[in-house]
Amino acid sequence: MKTVITYGTFDLFHVGHVNLLKRARSLGDRLIVGVSTDEFNLNEKGKTTIVPYEHRVKVLASCRYVDLVIPEHSWQQKIDDIRKYQVNTFVMGDDWQGKFDELSALCEVKYLPRTQNISSTSIKQAMSVLLQLNRELQ
Ligand code: C2G
Question: The pTM is what?
């Protein structure tokens, strides 16, 4: 059993997330996804999400490429997770290139190319423009 793990917020689930999860899953027999809790996002990444944690978990659990969803509470938990789940490969998009190289002492570390021209932030920005236009047309 070859286990792959990745972590993220996965707010406003979009095709960039799907592509990452599909490619990560293809590297093994099961894919574990650590979903950032709302507290972790706020306190450690300084970001708030549109979609609350419980809903983001349900969306990911429904994805065909995801076998197990766990909470991401801290930056440090990756080492314990890799050991607990006997992870073979740790995967992140290459916007994180080099940031987790220390994990290569425990497992393979792979950074995959991000999907261009889409992000949760750009979706949020587009939504706010549409909401503003709508208010102005009222
Ligand atoms: N991603 C991607 N292409 C995009 C957008 C995101 O490949 N267009 C990837 C990111 O590189 C990441 C994953 O999808 O590997 C989840 O992205 P985010 O939800 O933005 O995760 P992030 O906020 O970067 O949190 O401990 C790691 C952090 O929790 C990662």
Answer: 0.95
